[in-house]
Amino acid sequence: MSPFKGQTGLKRILNASGYSLDGLRAAFTGEAAFRQLVLLNVILIPLSFFLNVNRVEQALLIAVCLLALIVELLNSAVEAAIDRISLELHPLSKNAKDMGSAAQLVALTMIALVWAVILL
Length: 120
Description:
It is found in: Cell inner membrane. By secondary structure, the chain is mainly α. It has four helices and no strands.
């Protein structure tokens, strides 16, 4: 067992929930891209309930929107870790940040494609 692991059982779940909320709060307050994606989700997810689509299609419309939030959280985490290690310009740091950005571009493209395929 790792000495870095904390509590077990319900206490662990409560602690993990608190850490997750801290992460969401940090992303919302510190990352403009995350706030923009939240706004996009606030628009698109309720809109999906008013569209003439079946439940599976609606689930897909919602899932791709939430996936973009997940990708942005991971991208922001990578950027924070890279910046914590060093602010020095380094090709590997640039690659890591660029790959995170590319992942977000793919997620946003997926939103556009899935919504277009279902609605058109």
